[in-house]
């Protein structure tokens, strides 16, 4: 497999994918966040999370999407913060969010109760959380507020593939200033295919025109310039989701040799909550949750994050000796 | 345009789209709900809401989707209930939900506060809603609870196109028992295209295979058997979303003459929150929110629902004379 030409990837990004209008503002925020936390002795991880939307029409009614609730990214963000990292959370709009994710399985109105009555003087009854419905709410809320008070989480949203690509580039450039203290944890489910703006119909495709033939181009592999050009000192983890277990390890190894980054976290769609394979150029480690662990509500992200923060420490230490 | 052959649509539904395993259970629930409310003198509206997911692989990583937050459907459900209807809310999993939709623009944890401290005896502090962040929460919560207590809302979820199609058919059959007291308000954004199970790859499509060619079949137009066979006495409204205003009215008229139902609510993507065109075989009525109305937080769904409930009354009255 020929190595992607980096200069052409940077060029394609500029030409074929619309630049979000707020890109410079967001880049400034990420840069200030990274500098501030590095000065305070924190490491900084950029987490990408959720799927990307690929429009089929420029006034978009239809789009291609990738399966991802954002659970892996949102959950991992919490464990990275527990481990002392500051987190830039680059996530799909409306995908799962750290801390809030624990409320996502219920309708919040089922957990609220009005207490007291309006007194006619503009004071309404109080609304309290029923802690039988949400038993962990005080714990979750206190953590959330602590993280907010200490500004340990910088949320950035994307919806389309174009936004994702440009925001990731901006993040990489913003984090390059803190060298090997930066980690990239690329858990988003990014489309491999897209329709270039020049080939896209403006209006909604009409079903009366008959069956639909779509021809999609390949999305540039931006892991390549990220590792080589944009943040060459950083510790970089990519994810590989497959449905076929027989090709998983080979695909992970091939990604490492193509992009020359540090780690691939590989997983299978059906077992992703209980099994991952952490692959580095010289090792492969299985992380597994047993049935008992799952009953005890342990999360595999705790083990993934523990494994990677140790590896990041080692990566930093080894470079001191160079 | 040739009229679709109904028998073949029913057949295609059974052959090409996987039947959800809980279909009979859901049909039973919808049927009991309709019978109960019709006996209590209520009319019943089936609202469909949100977009459909069309898998590109049988172990699905990638899918085609339709733009829809579910705002139109969720909002309309509230106004139908205000107008005395009982509502079956057939909606995309995680799309906007009646009442709860008003909390969707904030992170709920930003609206909660812990008050008091844990006392060590297992009693934790209370968690209360900050009503400066959510000024309407008591009103919304009381309405939500009233609707729940009176069982005026039956929520049914779908994710894929297959689930949607089979659940809509089941709903139509369940509602056929209450004749013209039933309304169908088909606001979901349903895909026009799909890949039949027989032509779908099992595993994740590999990007290393190069650019992607997709060939999608046309989804059967089930409005046709719904109107003719499944619920022939019901009052049926379909929606038409276009991006090109010049073809809107013509498309609405063509749908009415093809399917022979009662109303098309037609709208343009960019202006859908402030403008719709309500088209019947003999009339066309523009509903418009002025700038001032929008500032006063009026919702166009209030006018759509008002227009349609009147039309439904007239429809029922006219049939008495037949």
UniProtKB/TrEMBL annotation, chains A, B:
<comment type="function">
    <text>Catalyzes the second step in the biosynthesis of coenzyme A from vitamin B5, where cysteine is conjugated to 4'-phosphopantothenate to form 4-phosphopantothenoylcysteine. Has a preference for ATP over CTP as a cosubstrate.</text>
</comment>
<dbReference type="Pfam" id="PF04127">
    <property type="entry name" value="DFP"/>
</dbReference>
<feature type="domain" description="DNA/pantothenate metabolism flavoprotein C-terminal">
    <location>
        <begin position="43"/>
        <end position="116"/>
    </location>
</feature>
<feature type="domain" description="DNA/pantothenate metabolism flavoprotein C-terminal">
    <location>
        <begin position="174"/>
        <end position="276"/>
    </location>
</feature>
<dbReference type="GO" id="GO:0004632">
    <property type="term" value="F:phosphopantothenate--cysteine ligase activity"/>
</dbReference>
<comment type="similarity">
    <text>Belongs to the PPC synthetase family.</text>
</comment>
<dbReference type="InterPro" id="IPR007085">
    <property type="entry name" value="DNA/pantothenate-metab_flavo_C"/>
</dbReference>
<dbReference type="GO" id="GO:0015937">
    <property type="term" value="P:coenzyme A biosynthetic process"/>
</dbReference>
<protein>
    <recommendedName>
        <fullName>Phosphopantothenate--cysteine ligase</fullName>
        <ecNumber>6.3.2.51</ecNumber>
    </recommendedName>
</protein>
<dbReference type="InterPro" id="IPR035929">
    <property type="entry name" value="CoaB-like_sf"/>
</dbReference>
């Amino acid at each position: 497999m020929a190595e992607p030409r980096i200069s052409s990837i940077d060029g394609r990004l500029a030409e074929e994918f619309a630049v979000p209008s707020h890109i410079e503002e967001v880049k400034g925020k990420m840069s200030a966040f990274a500098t501030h936390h590095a000065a305070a002795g924190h490491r900084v991880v950029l987490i990408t999370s959720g799927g990307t939307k690929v429009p089929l029409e420029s006034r978009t009614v239809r789009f291609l999407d990738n399966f991802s609730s954002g659970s892996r990214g949102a959950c991992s963000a919490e464990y990275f913060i527990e481990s002392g990292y500051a987190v830039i959370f680059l996530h799909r709009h409306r995908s799962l969010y750290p801390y809030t994710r624990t409320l996502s399985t219920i309708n919040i109105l089922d957990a609220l109760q009005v207490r007291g009555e309006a007194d006619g003087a503009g004071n309404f009854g109080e609304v309290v959380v029923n802690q039988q419905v949400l038993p962990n709410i005080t714990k979750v809320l206190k953590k959330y507020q602590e993280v907010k008070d200490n500004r340990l989480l910088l949320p950035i949203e994307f919806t389309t593939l174009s936004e994702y690509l440009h925001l990731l580039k901006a993040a990489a450039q913003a984090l390059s200033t803190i060298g090997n203290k930066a980690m990239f944890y690329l858990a988003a489910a990014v489309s491999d295919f897209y329709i270039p703006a020049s080939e896209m119909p403006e209006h909604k495709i009409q079903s009366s025109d008959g069956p639909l033939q779509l021809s999609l181009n390949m999305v540039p592999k931006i892991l390549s310039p990220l590792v080589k050009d944009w943040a060459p000192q950083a510790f970089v983890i990519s994810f590989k989701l497959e449905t076929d277990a027989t090709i998983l390890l080979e695909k992970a190894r091939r990604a490492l040799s193509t992009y020359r980054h540090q780690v691939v976290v590989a997983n299978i769609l059906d077992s992703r909550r209980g099994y991952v394979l952490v692959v580095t150029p010289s090792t492969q480690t299985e992380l597994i949750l047993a049935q008992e662990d799952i009953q005890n509500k342990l999360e595999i992200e705790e083990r993934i994050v523990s494994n990677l923060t140790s590896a990041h420490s080692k990566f930093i230490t080894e470079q001191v000796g160079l």
